Structure formats: structure tokens, C-alpha cells
Amino acid sequence: MADGVKQVTSRDSFTSGLGVIAATLGSAVGLGNIWKFPSLTGMNGGAAFIIVYILAAFMAGVPVMIAELMLGRRSRSDALSTFRVLHPKGGQWGLIGAAGVLSAFLILAFYTEVAGWVVAYVFKSASGGVLSTDPKVTSAVFEKLIADPYQAVFWQCFVLVCVGAIIVAGVSKGIEKTTKRLMPVLLVILVMIGVRSLMLPGAAAGLNFLFRPDFSKVTGGVLLTAMGLAFFKLSVGMGTMITYGSYFTKEENLPVTALRVMLADLAVSILAGIAIFPAVFTYGFKPEAGPSLLFITIPAVFSQIPFGNAFVVLFFVLGAIAATGAMLSIMEVPVAYLHQRFSMPRLHATALTVILLALIGSTAALSSSVLAGVKPFGMTFFDLYDFLTSNLLMPIGGFFICLFAGWVWGPQKVKAALSNDGELRNSAVINLFLFLLKYVAPVSIGIILLRGLKIL
Ligand code: PHE
């Protein structure tokens, strides 16, 4: 163990390499793969955008992910205590962890709302309630759901309680066990819908929309989008990966794990695009982004396919499964903190987190009804939380994590940590990582952030 590191005894953790991958990939794969990645790709230059995204992921996303996993595994602590444990004299660095806990609350506030709609749609589509080939009808169904304050709050609380129940069960028996079961199901459903979609007459047009490389679309703004997407997709910049890293075993090869997760997550995103767009184009719909694609277009499109009803249900089950792994990893951030810092039993820490989230989250849930007119900074609470986290807190968090790991904690400790104290012969990989961590990632994040905030 590195000097100065206080180890917490009898800490729950992931038990196998497979469990590590399931939980970490489960965090990365989420609603982002279904409604952000495919449509952003189609609208921003197809294969050209995928190339830019991969560059952003390699230059910033993956280095921050490796750094977070590394810091967490060394400290064996939650996102906030990690900085205190690894650098007892540098109290100000703990602010990264504090911002991470805040981000976790803000992301969950809107993410659980979208997940609530997805779960509501599983039930509604199974009972035939959302199925219509007419987008006006599917649109009216969706509007009715989000404009009803009781339903919106109910489904969000339902999701919060379900996720909380898994979190209470613990890291190995809750998070690891659940994600290990869910990830294979997710892949099977995705491939099933993908194959069905590829058999449709509009398959070529759909694939053309998704993959046709158009470099003229790649502007400065698109670079920002790709970088923000890389942070959101890879769950980095807010302490999730620090917290998960603290549950990793000593043997895990961190750079390899991070790379695998990034590539597998990319594959899921592309598969999701292959599942969605051929169907959308076959029936002449617009490839729009966001909630309208998920809740209005998908039900209308798939209702036209023979046995399409079953596919609509499957599609929302897929969304619910994807969202679960992501929500577990976000909720674990404050729960791990309360559990470790205040020695709260997991049950109490989770209950407190769920209650706080129900309160904060309801402001997002009511954004389309009672609170629709309340717009701090010109945005509804829902949009505000999304903007604050993806465009500000996560990139800023990632920037300071690079500075802390690369310059304060320093190359010697990084080398020891990533070679598993000399067990792995991976010095070339570590040197490349250090270069990305110390220079490439912070500079590119910094420039993109300043441009995003219109300061540059
Ligand atoms: N990566 C998740 C998704 O794509 C979202 C997420 C963000 C999860 C931040 C954890 C932390 O949906």
C-alpha cells in the first residue's frame, strides 16, 4: 500500500473480474446510448462524428476514467474522502469530491425522471396503452404523462425506491449481482431489435444516416458536443469511477479495463443506432433527438412492424435495464460517502439519499406541469440540472482530477498504482497515459470548456 494510505477494513467490494466489467460497463451504458449517441451521430456528420467522439474519448474521457479508478483503488475510499486520504494536507482538493456528490444529486434528479417515463412505458406498452401508428396519438400519450404532476412524481419515486433497494443490498450482493445479470439481457435484446430492424426495407437509408461520413458538419460546436458526450457516456468527472475504483481488486489492470469499457459502450451505442434508424426511415419518420425519439417516434414506428408491439415493450425494457446500471453507479456516490464518512449503516445512508433525491428530483419531475413557468437562468429545473452537470460540473471535475493525479499525486505514485506495484509490465502504456493526463486532457478540456462558456 502507498504510504499515508489509511485502509478501511472489511469493506464490501466487487468479487470478480467479470463483476468489475459488468458494474463499470453497466455505469457507462445508459439512456445516453439510446437517445443521445445515435441521434447526435446522425445529425453531426455520421462516421465523421464517431471519429471525433473516439478522439475525445481517448484524449479526455478514458484518461480521466483511468485516473479516477486509480485514485479510488489506492484510497479505498468514497469520492470525497479519497482526496483527503491521498493528500492529507491538500484540503482544497476535496472540493472535487464535494462537487462530485453534488453532481450525483443533480444528474439523478433528471435522470430518474426520464427513467421513470421509461418504466411507465414498459407497463403502458405491455398493456397496449401507448401503441399507435399515428405519431399524433403517441405524442398526446407522452404529453399526458409528463403534464400529470402525480404520475410524473409517482414514477420517479418508484424508480428511486427500486434503485435504492438494490443499493441497500450492498456492492457485491446488490450492484455487482444485478449488473452481472442485466448486462447479458441488454445485449440479447439489443441484437434482437437490431436484426429485426435490419430486415426492414429502409435499412439502407437508416444506416446511411448513421454512418455516412460528412466532415463538413464537424465544426467547433460539434467538438464541444463530442467532448460533453464522452464525459456523460463514460460516467467520468463526478466521482462515480472513483467510488467504483475503490471496490476494484488489486489485480485488475486499470488501463485495459477502461479501454474495454469505452469500446464496449461504443459498440452498444452503435448497435442502438442500428436498432433504431432503419425502422425510423422505413416508415418515413424524422430522426429527432431526445425524448421525442424515445417516447413518441419509437412507439409509432415499431407499431407498424408485424409483431411490433412486442418490440415496443422490448425496447422500453432495454431502456429500463440500461438506465438501472447507470443510476446504481450514480446513487452509490453519495451513499458510499455517507456510509464511510459518518459511519451510517447503508440502509440509513440510502434512505437519506432517496428522500433528498425525491425532494430535489420532484422539481425536475414537475418541470412539465406545475413548475413549467419557473425558469431560473431561462431554463426549467430539468434542463438546468442537465446543463449544469454535463456542460459545467463534469468537465470541470475531469479537469481538476487530471491536475490532481498528474501533477499533485505525481508520476511516481501513478506508475506504482497502474503497474499494480510492479506486477504488470506496462510502462509504455503508463507513459502514454501520463502524457495524456498531464497535458493533452487538461488542455483540451480547458479550451473546450472556455469556448463552451463563450469566454474564448
Ligand atoms: N453514462 C450514463 C449514460 O450514458 C450516465 C451517467 C453519467 C452515469 C454520470 C454515471 C455518471 O446514460
Structure description:
The protein has one domain: Up-down Bundle (Amino acid/polyamine transporter I), CATH 1.20.1740.10. By secondary structure, the chain is mostly helical. The N terminus is likely disordered. The longest helix has 34 residues. Helix 10 crosses helix 18 and helix 16 crosses helix 18. The protein has 18 helices and no strands. 75% of the residues lie in helices and 0% in strands. The chain binds phenylalanine (PHE). Phenylalanine binds next to helix 1, helix 2, helix 10 and helix 14.
List the helices and strands and how they pair.
Elements: H1 17-28, H2 31-43, H3 47-75, H4 81-86, H5 94-126, H6 135-147, H7 149-168, H8 171-198, H9 203-211, H10 220-233, H11 240-245, H12 254-282, H13 291-302, H14 308-341, H15 346-365, H16 381-409, H17 411-418, H18 427-452
Bound molecules: phenylalanine.
Low-confidence stretches: 1-8
Gross geometry: globular
Structural class: mainly alpha
Rg on CA atoms, Å: 21 Å
Name the hetero compounds present.
Answer: phenylalanine
Give a short account of the largest sheet.
none
Q: Whole-number average pLDDT? A: 92
